[in-house]
Amino acid sequence: MGVDPIDYASSGVDIDAEGKAISSLIGALGNSVRKSGQKGAPVPLPGGFGGIVEFGDARLVLATDGVGSKLQIASQTGWLRGVGIDCIAMNVNDLICVGAEPIAFVDYIAVPKTDPMVHAELGHSLTEGCRQARVTLAGGETATLPGIVTELDLSGTALGWFPEGGEITGERLQVGDAIIGLPSSGIHSNGYTLVRAVLERSGLSLNDSAPFEVEAGRIERWMEGDLTIGEVLLNPTMIYVDPVIDLVLACREGNGPCSSEDIKAIAHITGGGLSNLLRLHETLGWHIDDPLTVHPEFSWIADVGPVDSREMHRTFNMGMGMVIAVSDGVSDDVEKWLAERLTGTRRVGSVTDSGKVTHADSEVFFDHY
């Protein structure tokens, strides 16, 4: 007897419905009370990877996000050392996409009851995330909310900045620009409602050995013996401040592999997968002709689900957590510069005039975000 295919919507999260809800929210929001020329006045930004406000001759950028249902797996295993990194990563990686250097972070922790051990683990994890992101943990809030929350929730807000005129928006993209892909560390922190549905269908417990081989050194170990499926699913999200912001800063200062103008667009591949690329330009398209290697956990999810290829590439990063589009003429130099700092980085495709995302896998096709 065949197994019914599974997708993100049937497991509880409908990306299209979520997009409509967000559009409704935005449509109901009022205008800012601060006007152009005042500190705090809004700065329009295509793509929506961060909210920008004026601040004299600089621009401040804010991003807010949480860890989501990955926390449910972390709570089941009791291993929380990665979730603070996840929380910071999901925020600072968005700031990077507009060319902002992250500088500070505040967290929000909600629990049904206080537990010093849980808070200590979260503190260690947030500290490590701040170290990797090179940001100050400037404060936070812990709320004990019995009757409102039934389990741990963790979210936060990151603050970044760039000099006036230093934004990276995608507006200068051109047909033929090169797409450079940066590898992910794993599933990162989205799609876990679907992950949990697949895990349940597999019959595995989180402490069972991973039913696939994983390249050495990629997964952070916290148990002895065979690598477990829980360790794979909880591997922390990669923080891309190093090398992406280092690239942006070097190019601004004139000692990078290209000029600032050659860095055309940056996309964080999270919820929505490759469809995120369509946020960066209203008319241009993207073709991935040489995708990065798909991590084995994604192949396992697709097989066990089963989940079709398009749904996988819409829900997960599929091994590529960040994309940078640069002028074709400097792509070799930028690729080499990045690959020296993050192994596995390479050119994966080109900007097209199609207005769509297309892929070496003909099943993977997106015409809207």
- SSE order: HHEEEHHEHEEEHHHEEHHEHEEE
Total number of distinct structural domains: 2
The second-level CATH architecture of the largest domain is Alpha-Beta Complex
Helix coverage percent: 25-40%
- CATH top level label of the largest domain: Alpha Beta
Instruction: Please outline the major beta sheet.
Output: 7 strands, mixed
Q: Overall mean pLDDT score?
A: 93
Spatial strand order of the main sheet? 8-10-7-11-9-12-13
Strand content: 15-25%
The unreliable regions are none
Instruction: Work out the radius of gyration.
Output: 20 Å
Class inferred from helices and paired strands: alpha+beta
Shape: globular
The CATH homologous superfamily of the largest domain is called: PurM-like C-terminal domain
**How many β strands by DSSP?**
13
Number of helices: 11
Q: Give the N-to-C terminal Cα separation.
A: 35 Å
CATH topology annotation of the largest domain: Phosphoribosyl-aminoimidazole Synthetase, Chain A, domain 2
Description:
By secondary structure, the chain is of the alpha+beta class. The chain folds into two domains: 37-163, 2-Layer Sandwich (60s Ribosomal Protein L30, Chain: A), CATH 3.30.1330; 178-366, Phosphoribosyl-aminoimidazole Synthetase, Chain A, domain 2, CATH 3.90.650. It contains eleven helices and 13 strands. The protein has a seven-stranded mixed beta sheet. Strands 1-2-3-6-4-5 form a six-stranded mixed beta sheet. Helix 4 (83-96) packs parallel to helix 5. It is globular, with a radius of gyration of 20 Å. The two termini are 35 Å apart. The model has no long low-confidence stretch (mean pLDDT 93).
